[in-house]
## 1
Amino acid sequence: MNKETVMCRGQRFRLYLSEEQIQQRIQELGAQITNDYEGKKPILIGVLNGAFMFLADLIRAIDLDSEIDFIKLSSYGDAKVSSGRVHELKSIDAQIEGRHVIVVEDIVDTGLSMEFMMQRMNEYKPASVEVAVLLHKYEATQVDLDLKYVAFPVPNLFVIGYGLDYGQLARNLSQIYVLDE
Ligand code: IMP
């Protein structure tokens, strides 16, 4: 159900990006990727847990033979701010040497997780690595990253829904909500 406000862990969040806005933008990104990777078979690597929903919609918007795999990185736990420490909880299973990799992430905040991801991916010697990210908190990013496919640049706000959690809750929402402070 698509509500204007939701409660999560006793806090109120208001609608920030509607299901329609999200889905329309993903169609655009999918078309762009389809065009950019014509004749290639990209592998989309989703960063668990948050990227599962974005990856599921994005891959359906890509009209190419494509594969998926997942990696799991340490997260914020129950906090609303980044701990600044990243480690790998689950590695990828696929062989990506010589492959065209698209890292799929829900949100880039400080950028430390993505910086870690790029270092990890490059160790496997892929043919190319690009990033598809749903939300980029551009004001909060502390490292230099080349984010090729950004669905929505956003200011430094705490958001939930569409895969993004607050203490593991709210991932099931079809829309993105912002903390109503
Ligand atoms: P970074 O390493 O600081 O860029 O953080 C990336 C990770 O932090 C994302 O994959 C999310 O899991 C989490 N994160 C960052 N901002 C938010 C937010 O506003 N809501 C929920 N999770 C967030």
## 2
Amino acid sequence: MINLVLFGPPGAGKGTQAILLAKTFNLVHLSTGDLLRHEIAEKTDLGRLAAELIDKGELVPDEVVISMIESRLKKPRSTVGFIFDGFPRTVAQAQALDRLLTKHHSKVSVMLCLAVDKPELINRLLKRGLTSGRCDDLEAATIEHRIDVYNEKTAPIINYYESQGKYYPIQGLGSIEEISENLKQAVMRMSSKPISTLNQ
Ligand code: C5P
Ligand code: MG
């Protein structure tokens, strides 16, 4: 199996690139942000809790997102692997992902980290806020807070994967196509799967 963790700060392009990578390598795309927004749209109890935290730029508790991922991994399906977008967000989530994948006799293949500087992230998110309908993209203060939360709680995950030899930084500036090509090349180099199992 190929299991990719697509990592990076808010606005790095994870969602856009995850969709393209999922298509290229025939992977199931799991975005915890999308799953949480779905809960919000459905007005579930979990959605109500998530909305409060997301609007403030805070993280949803580990056990909530971990159990969302757990239930998706349990679902029987034939796939060559998964692409995790926006998860893990904390070291505890990264450890839980390892435990869950081990249960399924699998593991994280590589963590691809999109690098984008802070002014560009703020620019992109404010621009996205004009059309995304996402409350957390509207105000510069919320966006800055999300980036602070990333630096404090999420960025330490880099060490976690680096110590396992799985950390692969990718330049996140450039055209969508250029970045996508760089990600694809990285997966092909790091993946233990033969090229014949890949889509293109
Ligand atoms: O990944 P994405 O940027 O779409 O996530 C949007 C928001 O959802 C985050 O800012 C955070 O509030 C919440 N989230 C979370 N834990 C995750 C994924 C998303 O708290 N693992
Ligand atoms: Mg996203």
